[in-house]
Specification:
By secondary structure, the chain is α/β, with parallel strands linked by helices. The chain has one domain: Acetylglutamate kinase-like (Carbamate kinase, 3-Layer(aba) Sandwich). Helix content is 37%, strand content 24%. It is built from 9 helices and 17 strands. The strands form 4 sheets. Strands 3-9-2-1-12-16-17-15 form an 8-stranded mixed sheet, with helices on both faces. Helix 1 packs across helix 3, helix 2 crosses helix 3 and helix 7 runs antiparallel to helix 8. The relative contact order is 0.15.
Length: 316
């Protein structure tokens, strides 16, 4: 039997958790989640099965900072455990908000969060040249001490101080993929691949080991979406549409983008490196690996965008 309902992977950006500076506590984050989840329930009522992925950058940063401040009292938290902690806490928020929204609407649906591991290649060149800054700023002396004692890679960050940097390897496979699809097949709305998944490698014995790395959440979500043959890859972000000449008088908001046009705009530097660029690259990866439909919009406009009324639609 083929799948009757359409399947979407919805990659939720940081704005779903932290909508404004200064409102970053866990209750604040949950309140923000409660604003986004009803839009996803709208999708479910419109006939979609939804798997929700999410970022975790600020949350991992908070965990690492707490760990640093508590070093004289308790052991430090390795980065892979920080990632798993955030998958649990953010998954708990999403799950609770979804369950409550289902109940409000009299729907029998259930939500479940899955702690997800993403396999990376232990020989990925990224491990030789770490580039992803994490954690707090430090002075040079403290940074070099971490380098010598803890084997950290450290670098000076744009005149603002020194930071630890870790590898950002290419995702290969989400290990819990079959379990996630089994849950979807049984009617669950699944929260998974949080923060791109906990990065793991296979050692010489074929055993799984966590590694100190950060996986691009949008790229991992795109890989997962193409691997499960999703009908739609939707990236939920701060803006209603993708733009070129962003923040300029001649800004142009885009309704549609082909692969060719997206690549041209990427080459022209139209998309911000830390914001829209990784999202566009993830969408290109999805479409070039068999994906059919991709969409970028903000949470408030998800359902309208799916009807073709707004958002930026990507096609081959």
């Amino acid at each position: 039997m083929g799948r009757k309902r359409k399947l979407a992977v919805v990659a939720v950006g940081g704005n779903a958790l932290i909508r404004e500076k200064g409102k970053e506590s866990l209750p604040d984050q949950y309140a923000a989640v409660c604003v986004t989840m009803p839009h996803i329930v709208d999708m479910i009522q419109d006939g979609w099965d939804v798997i929700i992925t999410h970022g975790n950058g600020p949350q991992v940063g908070f965990i690492l900072r707490r760990s640093e401040l508590a070093l004289s009292e308790v052991h430090p938290i390795p980065l892979d455990y920080g990632g798993s902690n955030t998958q649990g806490s953010i998954g708990y928020m999403f799950q609770t908000a979804l369950q409550n929204e289902f109940k409000r609407r009299g729907m029998p649906n259930q939500a479940i969060a899955v702690v997800s591991q993403t396999l990376v290649n232990k020989n990925d060149p990224a491990f030789k040249t770490p580039t992803k800054p994490i954690g707090s700023f430090m002075d040079e002396k403290t940074a070099l001490q971490h380098r010598d004692v803890d084997n950290w890679y450290v670098m000076e960050d744009a005149g603002r101080g020194w930071r630890r940097v870790v590898a950002s390897p290419t995702p290969v496979k989400v290990l819990q993929q079959d379990a996630i699809m089994s849950l979807v097949g049984n009617g669950y709305t699944v929260v998974a691949v949080g923060g791109g998944g906990i990065p793991v490698i296979e050692n010489e014995k074929g055993e799984i080991e966590g590694v100190e790395a950060v996986i691009d959440k949008d790229l991992a979500s795109a890989l997962f979406a193409s691997s499960i043959d999703a009908d739609l890859f939707l990236i939920s972000t701060e803006v209603e549409k993708v733009a070129i000449n962003f923040n300029k008088p001649n800004v142009q908001w885009l309704d549609k983008l082909t692969i060719e046009d997206a690549k041209k705009h990427l080459a022209d530097g139209q998309f911000g490196k830390g914001s829209m660029e990784p999202k566009i690259k993830a969408i290109l990866s999805f479409l070039e690996n068999g994906g059919r439909q991709a969409l970028v919009t903000n949470p408030d406009n998800m359902v309208r965008a799916l009807r073709g009324e707004t958002g930026t639609h990507f096609s081959k």
